[in-house]
Amino acid sequence: MAVYTQVPAEEIDAFLTRYDAGRLVSAKGIAEGVENSNYLLETTGADGSGHRYILTLYEKRVDEADLPFFMDLLDHLGARGCLVPRFIADRSGQRLQQLAGRPACLIEFLTGISVTEPTPAQTRAAGAALGELHRAAEGFAGKRPNALDKAGWHDLARKCGADFDQIAPGLAARVTEELAYLDAHWPADLPRSVIHADLFPDNVLMLGDRVTGLIDFYFSCTDVRAYDLAITHSAWTFSHDGATFFGDRAKALGAGYAQAHGLTDAERAAFPVLCRGAALRFLLTRAYDWINTPADALVTRKDPLAYLRRLDFYANADAADLLGA
Ligand SMILES: Nc1ncnc2c1ncn2[C@@H]1O[C@H](COP(=O)(O)OP(=O)(O)O)[C@@H](O)[C@H]1O
Ligand SMILES: N[C@@H](CCOP(=O)(O)O)C(=O)O
């Protein structure tokens, strides 16, 4: 469960008086997510007809100074037809607030559910939504370095150090070996763009096979564009434990992305390496959290080894295995 900061309902009701949002009717902490505290708010709505909002309090990895980048990005994408939530301004035009001692924002609520076992049709729709996002991001002037790039992976690996082997014997050596491989093989000249960088199924809202919203842009940054497809591939085309690869989903993801954007020959050739990078990135953040999250914390730690299994798969795959011929 991810509600790190408990906010009394009276405080949320008082917070809402800054907005044309009506009075609070209910506030429920949202269990999903690991980074921030999220509440689903129901209000009377400005016109009394009822309205839903997301209230997010920023914790952990989100730097307050990055919030204007995320706000401008979602404005840009929304204006170009992407189904992304907008940050809501209060009556004075302010979108970033303080609540319970944390930076906080009121955010548009989008309908839809996150699938846990995506079908190929849903995976295709996610691939198309990512391609549309990349198209819509063209011309966005904002830039944000990726804190979880290769240098960031090395940093996390140093911080985990010998503790890796508490997760699995031999993991420290495997990570060192993989970092060396990626240092030697990471592609230098692929097109860069703003990327979502965390387009897991829990960050895609769907109704049936239709995408109704893309959420959680708090890792979005400027990086290799096809790396975003690799991250999405790692999240959508395996069983949760990483033990089973679903080729039909992978083919569908590639087809959906191709329909909306597509890969260059160089991006396709580099795809297995990009997938290895994606797998290592999530292995590392999960391992760091595994080691550093107290066992009694309110948040459920995610299994790093599910990404080690993906990494092992990617290390033996070629582009045709991963995307279809
Ligand atoms: N704009 C939104 N509309 C509808 N539901 C949302 C919205 N933003 C977040 N949620 C819900 O809150 C959950 C956690 O949000 P998320 O941004 O993924 O949190 P975290 O950054 O902590 O991982 C999501 O899985 C979803 O259920
Ligand atoms: N997707 C990451 C964790 C980040 O969680 P999110 O709830 O913000 O998507 C992982 O699975 O390791």
Automatic annotation (TrEMBL):
Any Pfam family matching the protein: APH
Enzyme class: transferase
The protein's annotated pathway: Amino-acid biosynthesis; L-threonine biosynthesis; L-threonine from L-aspartate: step 4/5
GO molecular function, one term: homoserine kinase activity
Gene3D superfamilies linked: 3.90.1200.10, Phosphorylase Kinase, domain 1 (3.30.200.20)
InterPro entries referenced in this protein's UniProt entry, alphabetically: Aminoglycoside_PTrfase, Homoserine_kinase_II, Kinase-like_dom_sf, Pseudomonas-type_ThrB
Matching NCBIfam families: PRK05231.1 (NF003558), thrB_alt (TIGR00938)
Family: Belongs to the pseudomonas-type ThrB family.
Name used for this protein in its record: Homoserine kinase
Organism: Sphingobium xenophagum
